[in-house]
Amino acid sequence: MKGLISFELKKIIRKRSTVLIIIAALFICLSSIFLGAMTETSYINETEKLRGFQAIENEKNLQGQVRGYLTEDYIKQINIEANQNNPKYWGVLPAIGVQEVRIPNIISDLNSGNLNGIYDHILKGPSTDQPRPVGTNNEVKQLTNMYEKVRGPFYFDYYDGWERISTSFSISIALVVSAIIVICLSPIFSEEYSQKTDAIILTTKYGKNKVIMAKLMSSFMFTIAIYILFVTVNLIFHAVIYGLDGGNANIQIHGWYYQSPYHFTFLKLTLFSMGLSLIGLLFIAAITLFISSKAKSPFITVILSAAALYIPKVDVSEISHTADIVLNLFPINIMNATEHFEIGVFYNLFGFSILQPIMMIFTAAIISTLLIVFTYKTFKNHQV
Q1: Looking at the structure, do residues 273 and 334 belong to the same domain, yes or no?
Q2: Domain-terminating residue out of 156, 180, 196
Q3: Tens digit of pLDDT for each residue in 270-323?
Q4: CB contact at 8 A, 166 and 340
Q5: CA–CA distance, 95 with 100 (Å, rounded to integer)
């Protein structure tokens, strides 16, 4: 079996198209990291600012000076020393406001049954007539319990390295790495049809069992290897450019997560995002393999798999809240994980309220398992 897996894995890796697309994807990811770093800005005062790597070092120094838990005593000290014209305090003052005002107000709204108060302030800026969730009593109760744990005191520090790692990685996995998987796995079964080698495979001793298993296992091994490659590259280059300070800072001090109910540090956010990204990547791999077992050519497989990957990214939130949260269970939205920790979204399943990340894992696991079984049976029962 090991020999068959090794053979199928080499078939994927040794293709010229595989090597070229991996190199292109690495170039795109590295370029986005460096271009992002070059656009960073930091103010010396109200009128003077730095750019690029100098800005990163300046922000690291400024925010590092006020790092610490935002306890009552520390907040009093900051309020005494703070000068609105001093960039040293520009990052910590909004974090204090979230801890002292925003989170308590959310808890108060939830206790009064006003779930939509949260949606009035999300950064996507919904219109007043945008569809909203109804919010069951169980959901409100769960959200209230989550926000109670987030009350604080928050830990403040320079967190840009970890925040960029989680955000940049989620986007690159969803848009770039997933394309590698779709293109490289599309020929796994459909190429056998197009080259008429399916007849040879299915009549061999292991053609209807071990060969199929070897194709499936090598495909998922390739997917995980590509994922590890891009995790490593992402971590190394962000660590070199931004550093890894602030891993234990609370995500609520960041503008996107200022009303998040998740009691996460930036390190925990990064780990959860990477975990969801891997699950989403394995999900699209399973979809691609299933389509490949059905399609007669790799080209058709690529087109259909790309459609299954990218179409669910269409924003339908202004049309239907239900349709929006259903599309969020598709691979590309699971991979773009950092978007889903801004607010608490629930799915009602058989009377149970399930948080969105948990629902994503559950859905991806169930559907991927079914697709793998269907893929195996489709190729095995294929009539030559």
Answers
A1: yes
A2: 156
A3: 999 999 999 999 999 999 999 998 888 888 999 999 999 998 888 777 777 778
A4: no
A5: 9
